Amino acid sequence: MACPASNVQGRIVWEPKRVEATRMDAFRRHVAQKRSLRLDNYDALWQWSVTHPCEFWADVWDEVDIISSGHDDGKGVRWESVLRDAKAPIYPPPRWFEGARLNFAENLLRHRGDSIALIEACEPSPGGEESRKDVLLTHDEVFQQVADCARSLRKSGVQKGDFVAAYAPNCIATIVAFLACSSIGAVWISCAADFGPEGVLERLNAVRPKVLFTCDGVRYNGRVHAHAEKVKQVLGGLQQSGLKLDLLVEVDYVGGLQPLLGATQWKEFLRNGMGEAHIAFEQQDFNDPCWVLFSSGTTGKPKAITHRLGGMLLQLSKEHLIHGGLNEKDVFFQYTTPGWMMWNFLVGAMVAGCPLVLYEGSPLKPASVLWDLAAKYGITVLGTSAAYLGALQRSGYNPKAALGDKLKVRQVLSTGSPLRAELYPWIIENVGDVLIGSITGGTDICSLFAGHNEALPVRAGELQARNLGMNVDVVDQDGKSVPRGGEGDLVCKSPFPVQPLGFWGQDEKRYFESYYATIPGVWYHGDHVSLTLNGGLVMLGRSDAVLNPGGIRFGSSEIYEVLEANKHVPPLDTIVTSVAAALKLPTGDDEVVVLLLVLQSDCQAAKDGKAFEELVKSVRGVVRSQRSARHVPRFVRRVQNVPLTLNGKLSEVPVKKLLNGASLSSVNSSTLQNPVRCSDMPQRRCASHIDDFAQLVFPDIDRAKFRFFLTGCPGRICRDWTRTQ
Questions:
Q1: What is the full DSSP assignment across 307-338?
Q2: Which end of the chain, N or C, is less packed with Cβ atoms under 10 Å?
Q3: What is the spatial distance between Cα 495 and Cα 515, in angstroms, rounded to a whole number?
Q4: How far apart are CA 345 and CA 320, in angstroms?
């Protein structure tokens, strides 16, 4: 049994055996010698990196060996300037590495030969046997497929600046399609296969792609989910908005399903471009767009965050190669879908030349599935979420006891939400002597502000350190630095190469207000944190109302829009308004979505329990079908009213505070139209026992079911609880 968090917080649970053998320390020594500096430790290197950005990022470029063309001063320098003004303000985002020309895919495909590059695995069949054989491709085979795919895209009319989209699983074909797209200079967008058609349409309509890659279906939780109907809805929606795709390509991922009418099959598409193993890599400006990722959409439509290719290449290379020490001998795994920024992080690991293991399916069906995969392929860096690690602990599964010496894992990376302090010693005891890298960043920068560092010790409950080149600080509401150990908001005080170019197709005002308006002169990220005396970061939660169940972030507006679009459909037509908020689990490592409904006072659902249950069933069904299973609210409650701001805007933060135990005095009633109604919110008060907690927050719930949900059970992740009701 792990120790209570209060006993382990800040305790060292792992230390590097030989700091001097790490790539991070080698980089420190190299910079110190090259620049004639005294950099005795990581803190000194970090401080220099944020006060001398031009020299630092130039040294990173050389260290990770960026392949580029364009400007050449005869001494190997491939750019005119790193920054024209080293003291440029953070807004507007400055241009970096002017004069450099490069290609993202060219840098990822630099490794050739017959060693394995990509391994594609999927969820086992319910009987335990593999549902289909794993697919392994060498570096040469991947290069050939990318070359064929790129030629086929060019034949279809795709050129630099066009959009190419995927509505597909985490598989080899999706990565090949991305690399081919990038080699041409086209801009990439991807949606997870489990997204509902409404969410996909919202994203595709924002960028108007020429090509869509999709699949026949996926396997999750022991079931095959055919994809055709969802794709048809997306195509119909695109047609209604006046967009006709130039090309639709379907990957035969599950197999045995009816091919989508009008789609070109993946293998046929590759044959159309078959030729030599040669790729004409489009040379692009460092600041050209590479991909568009979408925000969670808390206050409206998701933001189409446009990332620059040079910044992403340089930053991801720094994180994987220098911070993580990733190399050709490693095997890298990240549990993710193409709809999450961690998929881009996963693909970025190709710079190391090591095999990537791709997996599509439930991570807990059975509980051993990811660890069996780790043992089978010798995974050395295993990335997952804090919610998964908490669920694994509750399942009782012990990877170390089950697999012993078969496990080669040296790093466990955790993201999505803060990793509980007591899980750190549990990982050491149940996995092995591994670096535990809790990381933070997000879709907005598609990389990290702070995270893993193989040259530093790991302390329970802390991110190891702020990352090189990221001038991260913790400030109060006035923008003043908080003393170490104090709490405040995470900001970045100076420019960095992965600042987004903007929001595609949206005005500059929204971009400015998202990151730069809250505290002038800095990037405001919205994380509530503490910087420790050791230089680590403790993540205390989100400063805003983004929903984050299971480490998958999305905005409440994605739920509201579904309800609004179906308000004419009984019984959803009885909903007057609603508010969604996150409820933290007592274990502290995850949260669930609570949806509060204001109903018409004379409707049957407002008076009758059974009628309300039918309404809840309808709400969950429509959210699942039009968004995804991850969007489905775990609890739906009736309330008399919801808080509104003085200008009539729904105010979610007070709801979140009250749900999670804050007193009414914590809500600034002067900012609300109806402050007295805040007392209508169900509150979570101090409860030492799960049953007490259930009774206080949801007095009419079946407490046995609530206990089952909170404590979990072997072989199930938290979100699967809804299926037991």
A1: EEHHHHHHHHHIIIIIIS---TT--EEE---T
A2: N
A3: 12
A4: 9
This prediction's pTM:
0.82
Q: Is 337:167 a contact under the CB 8 Å cutoff? A: no
Give the model confidence (pLDDT) of 4-29 as tens digits: 345 899 999 999 999 999 999 999 99
Q: Which two tokens stand for residue 20?
A: 């001097």
Average pLDDT on 636-647 reads 77
Output 702 or 123, whichever has higher pLDDT.
Answer: 123
CA distance to 40, 135, 348, 545, 571, per residue, from 576 (Å):
62, 51, 46, 21, 12
In the chain, the amino acid numbered 724 is T
d(CA 563, CA 572): 7
User: Please, is 199 exposed, middle or buried when counting C-beta atoms within 10 Å of its C-beta (0-12, 13-18, 19+)?
Assistant: buried
Residue with tokens 């995927």: 166
Return d(Cα 68, Cα 583) in angstroms, integer. Answer: 48
- Distance (Å, whole) CA 469 – CA 51: 9
Q: For residue 541, what are the β-bridge partners?
A: 528
Q: Could you give the CA distance from residue 495 to residue 89 in angstroms, rounded to a whole number? A: 7
Cα distances (Å, whole numbers) of residue 509 to 513, 515, 649 = 6, 10, 19
Name the one residue in this structure whose structure tokens are 């109604």: 677
Of 276, 350, 379, the C-alpha closest to 111 is 350
The amino acid that residue 610 corresponds to is K
DSSP state of 596: E
Is the link from the previous residue into 169 a cis peptide, with omega within 30 of 0?
Answer: no
What span, in angstroms and rounded, lies between the C-alpha atoms of 579 and 596? 5
- Contacts (Cβ under 8 Å, ≥6 apart) of 133: none
Across 149-221, where does the E strand assignment appear?
A: 163-168, 187-192, 211-215, 217-220
Q: Check pLDDT > 90 for residue 324.
A: yes
Short-list 223, 203, 152, 215, CA closest to 181: 152
Cα angle, residue 666 at apex, residues 661 and 671 outer, rounded to 5°: 130
Contact 119, 147 (CB under 8 A): no
Residue 705 has pLDDT above 90, yes or no: no
Q: Which one is predicted more confidently, 482 or 678?
A: 482
Binned at pLDDT 50, 70 and 90, residue 672 comes out as low
Q: Report the pLDDT averaged over residues 198-223.
A: 94
- For residues 329-339, give the mean pLDDT: 97
Tell me how long the chain is.
Answer: 725
| Number of continuous H segments (helices) and E segments (strands) in the chain | 22, 32
Identify the band that residue 685 occupies on the pLDDT scale cut at 50, 70 and 90. very low
For residue 494, pLDDT beyond 70: yes
Query: Which H helix or E strand runs over 530?
Result: strand 523-531
CA-nearest of 180, 166, 322 to 251 is 166
What is the C-alpha R_g of the chain? 25
In the chain, the amino acid numbered 575 is I
Show the beta-strand stretches assigned E in 144-216: 163-168, 187-192, 211-215
Q: Quick one: which H or E segment has residue 719?
A: none
Strands of 401-518, DSSP E: 411-415, 435-438, 440-442, 447-451, 458-459, 465-466, 472-475, 487-492, 502-503
φ, ψ of residue 250 in degrees (nearest 5)? -110, 130
Report which secondary-structure segment, H or E, holds 382. Answer: strand 381-385
pLDDT at 679 over 50: no
Q: Which two tokens stand for residue 633?
A: 């609210």
Domains of the chain: 13-102 (no CATH), 556-685 (3.30.300.30)
Question: Where is 73: in which H helix or E strand?
Answer: none
